[in-house]
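Hi W.,

Here's what went into the run:
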Amino acid sequence: MQEIPGDLKFLKSHEWARVEDKGTVTVGISEHAQGLLGDLVYVELPSVGDTVKAGHAVAVVESVKAASDVYAPVSGEIVAVNEALPDKPETINEDAYGDGWIFVIKPDNLAEEQEELLDPDAYAELIESEDH
Amino acid sequence: MTQQTILNATHRALGAKMVDFGGWDMPLNYGSQIEEHHVVRRDAGMFDVSHMTVVDLHGARTREFLRHLLANSVDKLKVSGKALYSCMLNEQGGVIDDLIVYFLGDDFFRVVVNASTRDKDLAWIEQQAKSFEVKVSERADLSMIAVQGPNARAKVLGLLTAETRAKVEKIGKFVAVEGDGLFIARTGYTGEDGFEIIVPEAQAVALWNRLKEMGVAPAGLGARDTLRLEAGMNLYGQDMEESVTPWEANLGWTVALDEGRDFIGRDVLEKQKAAGGHALMVGLVMDEKGVLRHGQRVVTPNGDGEILSGSFSPTLGKAVAFARVPAGTSGTLRVDIRGKLVPVRVVKYPFVRDGKAIDGI
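Here's what came out:
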């Protein structure tokens, strides 16, 4: 399995979140999640300017096999979306933690909400327990 | 208890992602389902289909029995080795299963039925066979490997002895011959040319490995599903079941209403055909982005329908599906995808044949 970058936080539903230097939060789905879904063929993005709430579905990723909601790890406003994904959804399969990012949130309440997220070790433990 | 084919360890060693399929632990893919799909369309791929059930029927009255059991007519089978696709119906005209039957001799036919329907199929066949004194033998000692794609035949021929190769080279589509201890049928479930090879279990791993050395790529059930959908082939349990007649599953072409043949379900089929107005199965293409999936609601001017098999088509780069819709439905319909009504076109299928999109898809 690919190593999980140490600067990421996770939701149990397999989204990752990276707090950037400027205070925004970049969001994608984990390497483990892309592996479960298989070849991705469609990504439905939110719109820049949308207000999102932590734990609510804001995007959809679909593989040949299944459709899966992508939940917001924190509340705030969508300030960027990965426009390359609708034409190249397989980018998520190829680079889940990098070029496969899905959207960026400008958070409202980061300090409190990020306490709820899993650190890489806790996430690694979670997927380990799901596998067995 | 999940069952395993003799190739289970081979799949795992190749890094397959395994899934439960009808009680069998089978490879979904070996990495990328889409790549495996393209390999079959462009070159050659192989599928372990040993979970399917091979049943041999012996007895002087076997042909007579099959004339009664099947909705298609085994009287079309005149030359040894010839195969026929048919539905096996219940008394209500509903589909118990779809199958392929091979004519191997006046007192010997072979049928291949689905894995997920094995128990009920065997029970039904045995029950019906009694009054015809036909002996029903499941061949659990046999494995099956499907080799499919434009280069599949050449690669298989390269493995055979000269004597067998000469025989296999000559067979047309939907014909089987035996040689080198193999039962080699020019059939498949992908819309490509190729063979389905029935092999004694003890030799299946060696055959798989030799095919791999010949450059045949392992492909999983995921690719098999998108290939057969593009090729316009029904999947039992998704496109038809016991409450659905062949007319409602676009399988009317497999029903032979030949003079004087009293097959199970015939009276119901004739009545339904005469009455008309029954539901239809149609092909759909979605030009917008997104994926059509089993169970989605189809909105038509005549009432709601439902997506049966639906998927992203790797060859076309867009979603295709079968849908069951009310009688008289055509043109542009809409599908409810997460609350949004997305337009879809009703099209004639297959969607893809011999590697290419059909015109108008």
